[in-house]
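Quick question, first post here. What does this chain look like in 3D?
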Amino acid sequence: MPPLRRCCWAVLLVAWPSLPWCLHVPLDSTRRRLLASFLGLSTPISVAANARPDATDWAGAFAAKNAANAADGCIRSIAKKYVEMMPDSAPSFLRLAFHDAATKRGDGQGPNGSIRFELERNENLGPSLQRALRAIEEMVNMCHVSWADAIAVSGAAVVEAMGGPAVVVSLGRRDAARPDGEGRLPEGGLTAGALRDYFLQLGLDDEELVALMGAHTVGRWTSLLGVPDECMAKEGLAWWRCTREQGQRLPFTSHPTVFNNEYFKDVLEFERRQQMPRPAKRFKDRVDGEKLPPLSLSIPWMSCP
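> Answer (accepted):
Ran it through. Tokens below.
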């Protein structure tokens, strides 16, 4: 089993489709081209060829590696700068990386920067992704990388900046020139079975699905609190857009900018409370010692960090 599957709790989709372990096995030219196509790389992986490269190849590979390291460092430094200035912006970079990657199917779409054409879709509405994408544009211009690479690497960078593990992300993704297909992100009302079926399409098993859900330890979701009456009176897409812009954003956990396992603890606590006997008194009639602390759980896929 590849190492990537062992550490997917670090939000493996931000590293998708980088599989550096593949680059060290001998591949013939045909398999190398297929692998390069799967990874979304713009050039074949010459360092994995069976034939011994000559001095020119080694020099070129060394220069390319240095350039990739410089670009990676450039992206991460800009991402961390934004996190230092605006800690609440960090989850938005992570959400942006997932929304760009989760459109991946067998048609070759996926982590390709197409989300910059998709901000008007229901699942992407709201100011948080717009702000994150403006920061991504700065990375593209300053670091001379594709939108797809900037989005993927910045997602990994903010995980580390929020106290999570360091996630290695390879570069080389090509940008899409048009939006990916619609209806490819999970809806908020999916049952557990439907969620499993959805993530099976992305190649994720149950363990990886649970790990990915843990990313909701950071960020916020958009509630209907504070939405004015004229906004609530709207219908359809107009209602959705207005409530996303006007609704109060509430945190998933008590530490929405810290990458930890608090979300999982809250889920287990919620399950424990479901098994408790019904209280004899109404909440407002209980004394402080009889009240349980509130949980911040909500529907994960309706999040708007």
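The radius of gyration is 22 Å.
The beta strands are 220-222, 249-251.
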